[in-house]
Design goal:
InterPro entries: DUF4239. The chain is 78% helix and 0% strand. The chain contains eight helices and no strands. The two termini are 44 Å apart. The chain has a domain of 107 residues.
């Protein structure tokens, strides 16, 4: 990340040095008119490039939140299916299976969800609870063909739950790249600053234009910030899929 910032700063300083060198070696003549069209072109390109950075950042965080929502729904659905499939297992094994999956759900909703909202690590307790559920789902030697089929389906649902849980953990840790945040902040400042370089005949219209653009950029950046934490904030993915089933 530091190397990227250094490259950007180096290119910017090199361009500034080239402009200063040009003005020193080839100063504008007394009759040469200022080239406002060049300044307008540069301002337009900055706005276009900043729009690309905004769009890329917004799509990235939105996809991450959608993935977190899908993984949560898949995990809760698999846990619900395991709870239902326990009815087809031998009596003692069925009770242990239901108790094990209910303990796992309580841990997810009561412990892991607050930790994800705070950005804290989840630890290994959830995986340990799943290991107990997996051990409970082993087919007993005297199981009937129907019970064996139920146990196999239970293990298949456990595999789906494992995969969804890994995805949820990755979603909780994934954040927008610092390079994109750098582009969002610096690009926003440059885009707004360039609006002061061109005169508008009516100051009221100029004020409205600057206020509108500044407000829109700020709103978009705040939206990206909120979506960057899929389990916290205004658009947080909650534990409703788990509490709906259990």
């Amino acid at each position: 990340m530091i190397e990227s910032f250094a490259i950007v700063l180096g290119v910017a300083l090199l361009a500034a040095a080239a402009v200063l060198l040009k003005h020193r070696l080839w100063p504008p003549g007394p009759d040469e008119e200022p080239r406002e069209d060049v300044a307008e072109y540069i301002s337009m390109m900055v706005g276009v490039l900043y729009a690309l950075v905004l769009g890329l950042s917004l799509v990235s965080v939105w996809d991450a939140r959608a993935g977190a929502e899908d993984n949560t729904a898949t995990e809760a659905s698999a846990a619900h299916q395991i709870h239902l499939l326990a009815a087809g297992l031998p009596a003692g094994q069925a009770d242990r299976m239901r108790d094990g999956i209910e303990s796992y759900i309580r841990h997810v909703t009561d412990t892991e969800w607050p930790a994800m909202a705070e950005g804290a690590p989840l630890g290994t307790t959830g995986w340990q609870l799943l290991d107990k559920v997996r051990a409970t789902g082993q087919v007993p030697p005297d199981a009937t063909p129907a019970q064996q089929a139920t146990a196999q389906e239970t293990l298949a649902q456990l595999s789906a739950l494992d995969e969804a849980r890994r995805g949820r953990e990755a979603d909780a840790e994934e954040k927008l790249s610092p390079v994109l945040w750098f582009g969002l902040i610096v690009g926003g400042v440059l885009t707004i600053a360039f609006m002061f370089m061109f005169g508008v005949q009516r100051s009221f219209i100029h004020v409205v234009m600057v206020m509108g653009l500044s407000g829109l950029i700020t709103f978009t950046v705040l939206l990206i910030y909120q979506l960057d934490s899929p389990f916290d904030g205004l658009f947080a993915v909650d534990a409703t899929p788990f509490t709906r089933y259990f």
